[in-house]
Amino acid sequence: MASADTCFHCALPIPANCDIRVEIGGEQRPVCCPGCKAVATLIRDAGLTRYYDSRDRPDPGAVRPAEDAGEWQVFDREDMLAAFSTRDGNTAEATIYVGGMYCAACSWLIDAALRKLPGIANADINPVTHRLRVAWDTSSTGLGRILATLADLGYKPQPLAPDSTERPERAEQRLALKRLLVASLGMMQVMMFAVALYSGEFQGIDADMERFLRLVSFIVTTPVVFYAARPFFTGAIRGLRARRPGMDVPVSIAIGIAYVASVYSTYTNGPDVWYDSVTMFVFFLTVARYLEMRARHRSVDRSAALASLLPNTATRLEDGQRRQVPVAQLAAGDIVLVRAGESFPADGAITAGRTSVDESMLTGESHSQEKSTGDTVVAGSVNLDGIVEMRVDVTGTDTTLGTIGRLSERARYARPAFVQLADRVASYIVVGILALAATVAVSWYLIDPERAFVITLSVLVVTCPCALALATPTAFAAAGSRLSDLHLLVTNGNAIETLSRATHIVFDKTGTLTRGMPEVVQTDAHDPEFTAQDCLQIAAALEVASTHPIARAFTRHESALTATNIEIRVGAGVEGIVDGRRWLLGKAGFVPGAAPAAADETATQVFLGTGGRIVATFTIADTLREDAANTLKNLEKMGYSLSLVSGDGEAPVARAAATLGISDARSSCTPDDKLSRINALQQQGEVVVMVGDGINDAPVLAGADVSIAPSHAASLAQSSADVLMLGDSLHPIVTLMQAARRTMRIVRQNLTWAIVYNVSAVPLAAAGFVPPWLAAIGMSTSSLVVVLNALRLSRIR
Amino acid sequence: MSILYLLIPLALLLLAGAVWAFFWAVGSGQFDDLDTPAVRVIMDDDERPPEDRTE
């Protein structure tokens, strides 16, 4: 599970000089920080350590405990409960989006932990949509306690308003499953009766028994036609109304006339019935539809994506009184208090206070911004170190954040749509099939009116594009499920097709090629009295209370020391007393005697000083991922051109590009710049893959032909991406590109086979050599060949 | 062979029962999550926290 140098709980690398352990399963397990230690201890003490045995390899950092364990008690209040749950007497039900869960073991852990709370009636968690539906008795447990339990386990819970909870996909999925079952059970039963009827034809059968078996087949086929095959009929009608007939039209005609003719034949004791052909036909088509739908539904939940960047509640000032209210209740003109570590709930301006703000998620700029009275702040950015009051100007979807969300929606819809092209081609084929069937019917009516109907039916069944329809979805489904085993989640059905044609890969820098997390890369101790280790410990003790991202680089080292009288100097550093001495930790101007070394934007220098002299210099940087260079080299070898676009400044981008050997690098890009860069490439005829993780990447991800986001990416970026990469490595991109090429090879084989089969079978059927049952068997065999061929993809490694 | 006149309708009844049971199972959400139950069986035994902890 976790190797020796990664955290047992969250799988992040354990910083050097850090030695924190937790006893689990009789062994001392290393963890990376006091927070992870707390969570691991909590899980152990609740008797839930099986979580560690059963979970998948965790995404590094995914289950890291939140550093600002918010005040969840506010959710126990009556108006909060009303806003986030539906009540029925003493029982309340709420839907909670659980951020940070990544595998089935997580859902077990959440379920097991919640059931230990008093009064929980039902907890139902869906690991795919990350939604938890919980029902509880309000007299014994509050919503706040439930949320606090989730937060204590290291997840990021977010209650959702009741109206947004039911996804239409679920109903669709259930209905499709029922239809599939009716079709498959019906098909099996009717086949059994058909075998009896066929052997009866050869060996002789009692006339009563034959009529009985036909009647029974009719009873079983009827629900298959009217229930399981219903989508084909409605689809055909919709297609005809829109004057764009799809494959549903000949399919419906074949099902319809075969069924009606069989019923007629059953009633009048005619020579033949075709119930077996009808049910087999419906079954194979329903399987194809079901696979297609499954692939379509494996997408990221959009509705929670935007909201998860905003806090759940805000502290509104009402006549000088502080009051926690749901963010949805904020309106323009409200004055809101934002503490250090909280994110801004809306766009607006600071009315009191001074702080530094982390806008990196929105702009890609990795340095924090100083803000004071009158400066504007945007929703979703994080208040790092001061307490400020802000005036709300714009809320909800009109904020900068909402605009970026809309921009990415639009870019997504403006894509070249292959689907539409396929539909147009399909209607020509359909018209062709119908014309052919009509010609065959008329010709045979003139030659031999008795056989005209049977032969026309055979032609319709043989021309059925079953194999054709299965060729692509089965290959995509097989590749998709294999890729998800390899920690690659394909959320858009077309992505694989486009990936196989890709020519150009564009990378974002921060968080994609780099770790996106500052680390202390170098410690220079200037004073013989203190070793580098001492200095780190002192710094970690001082930074304990700070929420600044730089502080995290220090607090991941556990300190045996404690600091007292800590004071945070906004935008400069911290100051405090350790071991009786007054220490300063911060920027060059804040610590006397500190002289910054050669200005280098790639790294931040932090100084530690006491008594007017400088004791240590820490170099903090966001380092490149270990496998970045290797992965990029492999991709180049496979023939892709590579580019780097980043919102970061020129020097760090140039340096990263030089280390990685990328010649085309652009710095200081806004989301618009990135998008226009991609559009320019597309106009040169390149098929562009974008790899990025920030909110500012969302429009670009949506605008690129295919987009890939690592799983730690902002949820907005995730929802714009076609492929999600789980895990902390870039290498899956290479696997993905290879798999895409291989999948399309299989799809081409399948299509070729299906077309060759159909084209060669049609003349035989038209000439009257193929009875309907043989046509149905031929169609099934050809479909089976296609499915088996697609299953070869499950051996990708 | 006339026993078939009894057995086949019986089979149809069973079939109807199976379809009804499946519809009920789908409706009650048993097919919504196919991953968690697989691991839940393995993990559900209660475990005692280590004895030596001090509180």
Structural account:
The complex is a heterodimer of chains A (797) and B (55). By secondary structure, chain A is of the alpha+beta class. Among the domains of chain A are: 1-59, no CATH class; 72-166, Alpha-Beta Plaits; 305-398, Calcium-transporting ATPase, cytoplasmic transduction domain A; 487-515 and 625-741, HAD superfamily/HAD-like (Rossmann fold, 3-Layer(aba) Sandwich), CATH 3.40.50.1000; 519-621, Calcium-transporting ATPase, cytoplasmic domain N (3-Layer(aba) Sandwich), CATH 3.40.1110. Chain A contains 27 helices and 29 strands. In chain A, helix 15 runs parallel beside helix 27. Chain A starts with 19 loop residues before the first strand and ends in a 6-residue tail after the last helix. Residues 299-303 and 414-420 of chain A have low confidence and may be disordered. Chain B has one domain. With 55 residues, chain B is mainly α. The radius of gyration of chain B is 23 Å and the shape is elongated. The chains are: A alpha+beta (797), B mainly alpha (55). The A-B interface holds A 23, 26, 44-51, 53-54, 104-105, 107-108, 111-112, 124-128, 170, 173-174, 177-178, 181-182, 185, 189, 206, 209, 212-213, 216, 219-220 and B 1, 4-5, 8-9, 11-12, 15, 18-19, 22-23, 26-27, 29, 31-33, 35-36, 38-40, 42-50, 53.
The Rg value of chain B, from CA coordinates, equals 23 Å
| Main sheet properties of chain B | none
Low-confidence stretches of chain A: 299-303, 414-420
Distance between the termini of chain A: 20 Å
* Quaternary: heterodimer
* Number of DSSP E strands of chain B: 0
Overall pLDDT of chain A, averaged?
78
The helix-and-strand class of chain B reads: mainly alpha
What class, by secondary structure content of chain A? alpha+beta
Which shape of chain B, going by the Cα principal axes?
elongated
- Note the total helix count of chain A: 27
CATH class of the domain at 487-515 and 625-741 in chain A: Alpha Beta
